Amino acid sequence: MSELVSPCCGAEYSDDESLVSVCCTAEPKGHTDLCSKCLEHTDFFAYTCNNCNDWFEEPEEDYEYNERMKESIAEDRMDEARDMGEL
Ligand SMILES: [Zn+2]
Ligand SMILES: [Zn+2]
């Protein structure tokens, strides 16, 4: 069984917060996709990461998060190797 985690930290998150807009972190206006602050159409974050308190739209499967982390570590190593080669 995989678990859902926050995409930023792979940590636990809470989903009991109300929605906030991507643009202004304000509430949606009624049942529309309008931001109550700037009245523009926008996306809304529904979750907060328990680790860093960042908002995000969708949680991620823990194995997806781990895969992504592994890839970015591998990329960092390749970048390092490339930098060494150029010296
Ligand atoms: Zn986080
Ligand atoms: Zn807004």
How would the blueprint of this fold be written?
Blueprint: E1 4-5, E2 13-14, E3 20-21, E4 44-45, E5 47-49, E6 55-56, E7 60-61, H1 62-86
Antiparallel strand pairs: 1-7, 2-5, 3-4, 5-6
Number of domains: 1
Strand order of the largest sheet: 2-5-6
How many strand elements? 7
Identify low-pLDDT runs. none
Report the span from N to C terminus: 46 Å
Give the number of helices: 1
Brief account:
The protein is α+β, with helices and mostly antiparallel strands and 87 residues long. Helix content is 29%, strand content 17%. It is elongated.
Fold and architecture overview:
It is a single chain. By secondary structure, this protein is α+β, with helices and mostly antiparallel strands. It has one domain (4-86). It has 1 helix and 7 strands. The chain has one helix at 62-86, and strands at 4-5, 13-14, 20-21, 44-45, 47-49, 55-56, 60-61. The chain has a 3-stranded antiparallel beta sheet, with no helix packed on it. A hairpin with a 5-residue loop joins strand 5 and strand 6. The N and C termini lie far apart (46 Å). The model has no long low-confidence stretch (mean pLDDT 93). One zinc ion is lined by residues 21, 23-24, 26, 35, 37-38, 40, 42.
